[in-house]
Each structure stands twice: as structure tokens, then as C-alpha cells.
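=== Structure Prediction Worksheet ===
Name of assembly: unnamed complex
Input type: mixed (protein and possibly other molecules)
Chain count: two
Listed entries:
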Amino acid sequence: MDVVLNSGDTAWMLASTALVLLMTPGLAFFYGGMVRSKSVLNMMMMSMVTIGIVSILWVFYGYELAFGYTSDSPWYGGFSLSGLGSKVDEFTNNGGMYPIPLLVFAAFQLMFAIITPALISGAIADRTKFSAWAVFVAIWSTVVYFPVAHWVFAFGNKVGDDVTGVGYLAGKGLEDFAGGTAVHINAGAAGLALALLLGKRVGWRKEAMRPHSLPLVMLGSGLLWFGWFGFNAGSALAANGIAGLAFMNTQVATAGALIGWILVEKIRNGHPTSLGAASGAVSGLVAITPACAFVAPWAAVVIGFIAGILCSLAVGLKYKFGFDDSLDVVGVHLVGGIWGSLSIGFFGASAVNSVGIDGLLYGGGAALLGKQALGVGLVAAYSFIVTLIIGFVIEKTIGFRVKKDAEVEGIDLNEHAESAYEMYSSSRGGSSI
Amino acid sequence: MKLITAIIKPFKLEDVKEALTAFGITGMTVSEASGFGRQGGHTEVYRGAEYTVDLIPKIRLEVLVDGEEVEKVIDVIVKAASTGAIGDGKVWSSPVDNIVRVRTGERGTDAI
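=== Predicted Assembly ===
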């Protein structure tokens, strides 16, 4: 096949790949600042070890399972070894040829595979046995993320007019540009499952569990925002107009969500908070992720603004239902991901992207919304159920939680023999208002 | 010989330090403290969860003085630390049996 390398596209994809990697250390800061000072290192290590584990799995079989196209299955790519080293001369084929090396595409997709399980860690902060987390990441990536990435992101191996191995949801016409379903709903549903399985932290709603360092949270949200340009605009797999649209939408939706979240706080509590601004930004980034290349920038502002309001209210659900989703993986990623994925059914506009379909507001009818709902439901249900099973098995074999004494004394000291600071707590309470 | 201990608002430390230096006090010990009195705590809200923070950050300042100077030094501290608002802090003095300057071995008031 005559494909000539496009150095501009390739350069952008290399840069995007590095940007998406940066999101995971950024997430470590975002989450690390939100936990108590006795758990910050463990929280950050949960992200760091995920980078280590998933990168290794990706080389041997992860890439193959997600994008291998050695099977014609809509559910997985293939079961052979990835053999990435033998593919230096190959170009990317994903529903058509892209003039970027396959290894660049594989590295870009790896970063998505890393951050998705890392996102889950926020739901089970302060209390997870580190070895159990490492085992969970390896199993979850293998049986949940790699296949689900195939369902959503695999557009098939195209040779001539033949396309083989199209992912189930991609084939059904789900529009998910950068991972509203595969990344955020997937991680959010898994977070809910683990929060239910592991149970509440010792002293939840009785003891002080306020964020120990809001500057770290702000730093983390800034790094996430910056890296997210690679996540969304990089998903164009080219340095072109679609990347530009995704870039602009990422910016303005995030701005809308930031304002939406702190407006709710201002009206409800009287004070807009820095944690609210950081959380609002992330909720906007989550919501625009699936939609960024399918909607007009004005719609991105609306999607973001609604996401900020919706997620700021959704983080209160855990108090209503009594589950300790410690850092609101459900409230931000599951709820934001669902809203963002469904929003395309309303705001999708073929005028901005000829590949996209018109949503309800553009006279396209409810067909697209139905496809989006199928993607949302299937990924959420699969992730929730399979995560429960994996978690149950880990709990019954090696145990998922640290001992109560270790949790009370501090997980950093007991799991890592380190402490981040010398500090003590000076507050109490934790009831919702 | 007396030990004067003052609990003051953190942002008043500079004023108190300057006033004491102007008075002729040549040494003091300052540490970060937290506690509560009549001021009570305050409320903080994180993602809709409300926390009562009842230990408020304060500065603890300690000065060793000759017995005769006690009332004057306390007055200097109180004047410099006062804002008139609740939470300005407290100052008290207590007797000291002995003082030794580590470098020279001087004892009693010579060591102040």
C-alpha cells in the first residue's frame, strides 16, 4: 500500500503521546492533594505503578488484544504476542490508513490504557493494599480495558474495500472521539464497584478527611488540562482541522465547566472554592472527551457548563447512598462521561465534522442518541460487573484492604515505609450539607 | 525570673517582635501552635462536604524576663498583639527556677 510518512502528523502524534502520559502524574497530584497527609504517597504511587504495569503488558499482549486485528472479532483484537518490535516500517491502519508509524499509534493508545485504571484509584483511596492494587491493574487492564478499547476505538483493518475486526460499538456507530465510554465511564463504573466492594474508610463522615494540599490539587488539574489537549486533539491522529476543533472544544468546554461548578458553590455555600474550580475543570474535560470532534464550539461551552453543574451536584450522591467513593470517581468520571457521551446525541453536528451525524438539535432525530445510550450502557454494565468479580476474587485470595491499624496509622508508613510530611490533623466532621 | 508565654494571631508576630525589640528584649522563642478559645472554629466546605475546623493556627511566643520587668513586657505584647477582635489570644507569666546559658554556663538573671 502506498503510504508516505507525514512528518507533521507524526510530530504532532509524538507530542500528543507525551502530553497524554503527563496526565497520569498530573492525576497523581490531583488525587494526592485531595487525600489526607498520611496517604498522599500511596495515592500517587497507585498512579505511578499503573504506568509501570500497563506499559509492560501493552508491549507483550495489550496492544494486540486491543488493536491487533489478528482476529475478526468485534470484541477483541487478537490473542497473539504484540511483536511491536517487528513493526517499525508499518503505518497505522485503523479503519483506513494514516501516514503515521504504527508504533506511534501504539504508544499513543498505550497512554490511554495507563490513565484509565489510574483513574479508578481515587475511589478506593487511603485503604487499598498496594500489592492487591497492582494485581488488580494487571487483571482489569487485560479483561476490561484492552477489550473495551477494541469495542470503541478499533475501526478495523482496512485492506482495499475489506474492513476486518471492527470493534462492536465502533461498528454500531457510537461516536466517542477520545474515550468518554472506554476511558471515563469504564473507570467510573469500576470505581463504583470497588468502592462498594472495599467499603468505607475507617471514620468516614466522623473524622476529618479534608484535602491536605489544595495547591497540589490545583497543580494536578493544570497538568491534566494541559495533557488533555493531547488526549482529545491527538485523537484526530493527524495535525488537521479536526484536531483544531477538538483542541478548541476542549478549552472552551473546560472553561464552561469550571464556571458552572463554582457558580453552584457560590449560590449554595456562598464561597467559590479552589477545589471546585479544579474539579469543575476536570468534569468539563471528561464531558467533552467523547464529543470534542463532533460538536461546534458554542455547544462545547454548553456541554461543559452543564457538566460542571451536574458533577458538582453528583459528588453529593455518595452521602445520600452511603458509599465511600473517596475522590468522586463516580461523580466526576462516570456522571461526566455519561453526560458527555449522550450530549453528542443532542449537539452532534455534521456541519463541523463530515464524519459525524446530526443530533436532535440539528434535526438528526433520536437515532444517534440511541447509539450513544447503547455505548454508555454496555460499557458501564460490563465494567461494573467484571470489576466486581475481579475485586471479589482478589478480596477472597490475597485481600484487597490494608489492616485497620495500618489504615488508621497511615497507609504511606505501612505500605511504603515513607512519610510525606510532618503534620497533624486539626479538624473534625465530614457531613454533607 | 519569669517566663512569659503569649498566644497570638500569626499575622501579629511581626508587630509584637518589633515592639519587644524596641523595648529592649534581646531574645525570644517562636513556635507554630494551634488551639481554640472563645473564637471557636470555622467551617470549610470541600465538594459539598462540610468540615468544622476547631483548631485554629496561632503563634506561641516565649520570652524569659527579669521578675521586675514582667508587667511592662506583658503590656508591650498585649498592646502590639491587639486587634480588638475575638481570637487575639492570651498572655501569661509563670515563675522560672533557674536559667543557664549553654555556651558560657552563666546562671540566673545573667543568662537572660
